[in-house]
Amino acid sequence: MKAFYVMILALKVVNHVRIHKHPILDFPEKKVIHFTFNGQPQIGHEGDTIASALHALGFKELSKSIHHKRARGFYCAIGNCGSCHMRVNHVSNIKTCITPLEEGMIVELEEGLGRIT
Amino acid sequence: MIANILIIGSGISGVAIAYHLAHKGVKDIVVIDQSYMTSGATGRCGAGVRQQWATKANCMMAKRSIEFFHDAATILDYADDIEFKQEGYLILATDQEEHEQFTHNVRLQNSLDIPSRQLSVSEARNIVPHLNPEAFVSATFCPTDGHLNPFKMTDAYYQAAKRLGVTFLFFETVRSISIESGRIEKVITSKRTILTHHVVNASGGYACEVGKMAGIDIPVYSENHEILVTEPIEKIQGPMVMSFKKNIYCQQVPHGSFLMGRSTPDQVQGHDISSSWQFLEAMAETVCEILPVIGKLRVVRQWGGSYNMSPDRQPIICEAPNLQGYTMACGFSGHGFMFAPMTGVLISEIILKEPPTLDVSLYHIDRFKKHMMDDIEKSVV
């Protein structure tokens, strides 16, 4: 049990969970992509989707449930479930789990339901 | 098992009939369904409720029913919310012929105290700003029309009926109805024999078959009508938007999704309730013409359900002319949900031989025997 808490703590301290060393596969350094999340500057890497970049940075809450406003995180990760819908470049209901991250993107959590713009 | 009255079908009509009979003190009412409650047309319907009809019979059914929906949670002592949203129906006239028909309709509706009115294109766009002004020439609007949750409404009737002692049998199929010397004696189901002299046919899509079991030829058939639903967004549309000529109804439901349907031209008769890509394509094309902004939304789901069609698109609510004790509530032609409160009231009055709330001759099956039907409902999608 103690080890479990230490692990949680470690995840919080090391705020990214990317694999750098692997016995078989290579993970070469990739180009850095700058974006903002809820107004704060953040960094992802080439090949990331919006949600994968956020996940690696430790942002686990991607939306809120409709009725009880409970946190919703990564769920299907294939663009079906709607759990990761966010406002991207001021457009609502973007499936962040399958949308590639691009330089300069403005990513925001949705307050309430999305809007048609 | 002995039943004073056996109601076949636990959709909205069946539970409404059960409630109204039980409320008037009838004991030993049994409701039977081959599946679960709302498994047929009720659970698949668009659940809009409107009073803007072209025939007197439909107008009166609808008006009284909406008055009931307005107070249903209180009347039925329902703790949950039936999600009744009363923000009107906006019906589009797409050419001069429809405009003139609607002028006539509004006059009829107003004569029956239904507060509908005709609107110009710009007045209609004040109510629904995202309407394409090129897609219609005028509109009619009735602010007291609306929408509610068909599952919750059925549950409200069900809970109230249960408290009054009604028995419900689910996943039990009626196999045959035994008639001896002109009288119903028993009903054989997949699980038992029920002794009863009174049967109510409220079996929705299967009304014709349940009629045949008692040797009654009910001139109704079922056809598949499809619906789709989009992802939810913040509220942008109050009323149901509808067009008969363009073949569409489209409503934003309280949790934010848009729900829309249309009828399939030359649909084959039968119990098929599958979904088709042809519907999806035609529906998308139609909605994008009338409400272009909805084209930006994703479709999350589609489904089909049975309309039980009658020859004049109006319900059949009566006792069978040749078989005492056999009452029917069918042929609603896609509008059984919105008429259900009055269906419950009228059937209970017919069974208990009470003076009817409405002129029930309008809904009698014998009207189809006449040379011509007086009044065929045109305001149907």
Topology:
The complex is a heterodimer of chains A (about 120) and B (about 375).
Chain A: H1 2-13, E1 32-37, E2 40-45, H2 50-56, E3 63-64, E4 71-72, E5 85-88, E6 91-95, E7 105-108
Parallel strand pairs in A: 1-7
Antiparallel strand pairs in A: 1-2, 3-4, 5-6, 5-7
Chain B: E1 5-8, H1 12-23, E2 29-32, E3 48-49, H2 56-75, E4 89-93, H3 96-111, E5 117-119, H4 121-127, E6 138-142, E7 146-147, H5 150-163, E8 167-169, E9 174-180, E10 183-189, E11 193-195, E12 199-201, H6 207-212, E13 221-230, E14 240-243, E15 248-252, E16 258-262, H7 277-290, E17 299-309, E18 316-319, E19 326-330, H8 336-351
Parallel strand pairs in B: 1-2, 1-12, 2-8, 4-14, 12-19
Antiparallel strand pairs in B: 3-7, 4-6, 5-6, 9-10, 10-11, 13-16, 13-17, 14-15, 15-16, 18-19
Helix pairs in contact in B: 1-5, 1-8, 2-8
Could you describe the 3D structure shown?
The complex is a heterodimer of chains A (117) and B (381). Chain A is α+β, with helices and mostly antiparallel strands and 117 residues long. Chain A has a domain at 32-112: Ubiquitin-like (UB roll) (Roll). Chain A has helices at 2-13, 50-56, and strands at 32-37, 40-45, 63-64, 71-72, 85-88, 91-95, 105-108. In chain A, the strands form two sheets. Chain A has a five-stranded mixed β-sheet with strand order 2-1-7-5-6, with helices on one face. The N and C termini of chain A lie far apart (49 Å). Chain B is of the alpha/beta class. Chain B folds into two domains: 5-46 and 151-220 and 312-369, FAD/NAD(P)-binding domain (3-Layer(bba) Sandwich), CATH 3.50.50.60; 79-147 and 222-308, 2-Layer Sandwich (D-Amino Acid Oxidase, Chain A, domain 2). Chain B has an eight-stranded mixed β-sheet with strand order 5-6-4-14-15-16-13-17. In chain B, β10 (183-189) and β11 (193-195) form a beta hairpin. In chain B, α1 runs parallel beside α5 and α1 (12-23) packs parallel to α8 (336-351). At the A-B interface, loops of A face loops of B.
